[in-house]
C-alpha cells in the first residue's frame, strides 16, 4: 500500500529531525497545570543566550552573507536558528565568555544592539534546542581541552620515561663495557703468566679434593678395621678367659691333697667351679654361632672368671690358714723343745764343734756350722723352683713376636711396677690408693696405666707375669730405695705385707727374689763348688758382676743392708685395713728363726755384723715385745758368745760395722729397751 509506505517515511523523517532527537519526559502528563502554565507564559531568554549570540550567530552570518540571502531565506533561517532577546546588556555580558579585543569589536557590538532591539517570536522548542546545542558545544570544548591536557601529560610522562630508560641503558652499557674490560684484563694477565702459575691453582684444588677423598677412604677403612679388631680382641679375650678358667679349675682339683687339713667340704667348691666352666663354654659357643661376640657376653664371661678367682682365693685362704695353723703348732712345739734344751744345757748348746780357731786372747773357741739346716735349705729350694716355674709359665708372653702380645706385656709391666715406685711416706691415703690399684690389678680388674685400661685377663699368662714382676719390683725397691733411705722400708713393707696376705703367691715370689739377691736373708752361705766359675760364685754370694768386674764392698754391703731392712720390716708390719683375725703370712716367728739360725752359723767378716745391726735396729723392738725374756737371753748370748767370733775374723779396716753393732747392743742391754726404729708408721700417718 503506497499510502502506508509514505507514512513510515514521514515518521522516519520526523524522527531524524532536530525535534525528533529530543528526549521527552513521559511524566509530563502527570504534572498537569505546570506544563500548561509553561506553555502559556511568555518565553524568556536563558542565561547562556548572550554567549550564544556572541559566538554562534556571528559564525552563521559569515557563512551566509546578507547580499546573497533573500528575504525569504532570511526569514527561513530565522525560523531554523534560535533567536534570543536579552533583557539587559548587563545580563548578557555577565554570562558571556570574555573575548579578546578585535577590530570587529565595534561592529559586533552594533550588531548585538541591533539584534537586541528586535523582538523575535520563538517557541519553547527553539529555546530548548539552543540550550542543547550550547551544552553540546560546552561539553565538546571541555572534552577537547581535557583530552589535550591528558595528551600533554601523557606525552610528558612518556618523555620522562624515555629519558630515564635512555639513562639506564647508558649505565647498563657502561657496566657491561667495564665488565668486559676487566675480563679482558684478567685474561691478559693470565696469558702473560707462565703455564705453571696458571695450572697451579687448579692443581691445588684437585690435590685438595684427592686428599679429602683419600682421607675419607682411610677413615672408613680404619673404622672397618677397628670393628674387626674389636671383634677379634673380644674373641681372643673369651678364649683367654676360658683358658684361665680351665687352669683355675685344675688348681681347684689339685687342692684335693689338702683335704685332711681343711675343715670345709671341697665338693661345693668343685661343683661351683664346674658350673662356671660350663657357663663360659656356653658363652663362647653362642658367640661363635653369632659370628661376633658382644660386649655383654665378654662382661658375663669376665664376671664368671672373677667368681672363679674368688672361689679359688677363698679356698686358698682356707688352705693357707690351715697350713699356717699346723706350721705354727709345729714351730711352737719345736720352740718349746729348743728352749727346754737351752735351759738345760746352757749357751754351749748352740755350738757344734766343727773346727777351731784362735781367739784374740789366745782362748781356744769352737767354730759353728757353716752349712744351713736341711729344712731351711729345702724351703729355700722350693721357693726357687716355684719362681722358675712361674717364669716358664709366662715364657710364651715374654718371647712372643706378636705386636699385640708385646704391647700387652709392656702395659702389664708398667701397671705392676709403676705403683711400687710411687710408694712413699707422703700420706696414708696416698699409700692406700697405691695398694688398691695393685690389688685390683692382681684381682683381674681393669686399672688405668699410661692413659690406657690394663687387665691381667688380656692374656692367659698375664697374671703370672704381673705377680713375678711385682715381687721383683718390691725386692728391687729394697735393694735401691731402702739402701739409700732407711725410712722407706716401712711404707714399702706394709704394702708388700698387705699384698702378700691377699695374694700368697706374690709373697712366695718376693722371698724367692730376696733369697736369690741376698742369700743371707735365708740365712744361707753359698759354698764354692769344684768347676764353678769365680764370677758365678760371686753372683751366688750376692755381688754384682759386670764385664768381669765385681762391685765395691761398700756398695755390696749397702744393697744387702737395704734388703735385710725391708725383710725385717715386712715380718713385723701388717696392712691396717686387712683382716686382723688372720695371722701374718710371714710374721715375727720367721724373724726369730732367722736370728737363731744366723747365731748358729759361722760369722762372715763385715757381712754378719752389718746384717745383724740392720735387722735388730728395724725389728728388735717388735721381737722384744713378742718374745720378751727369751729375746733378752738371745741378745746376751750374742754379746757374750758371738761377738768374740765376729771380732776374731774382722780385720782392723773392717771394724766399723762391728763397733756399731756392739755399741747398739750394749746400749740396749744397759737401758733394757730397744727403741722404735726411725720412720716407723704410726696411727697418725694413716689418718693423713
TrEMBL record:
Return the Low complexity bias intervals: 67-78, 88-103
Tell me a GO cellular component.
cytoplasm
Which keywords accompany this UniProt record? Coiled coil, Cytoplasm, mRNA transport, Nuclear pore complex, Nucleus, Protein transport, Translocation, Transport
What is this protein's function? Required for the export of mRNAs containing poly(A) tails from the nucleus into the cytoplasm. May be involved in the terminal step of the mRNA transport through the nuclear pore complex (NPC).
> Which Gene Ontology terms cover its molecular function?
inositol hexakisphosphate binding; phospholipid binding; translation initiation factor binding
What is the name of the protein in this document? mRNA export factor GLE1
Q: Name one Pfam family in it.
A: GLE1
Per the record, the coiled-coil ranges are: 203-258
> Which GO terms are recorded in the biological process aspect for this UniProt protein?
poly(A)+ mRNA export from nucleus; protein transport
| Subcellular localization | Cytoplasm; Nucleus, Nuclear pore complex
Which residues does the annotated region (Disordered) include? 63-111, 323-363
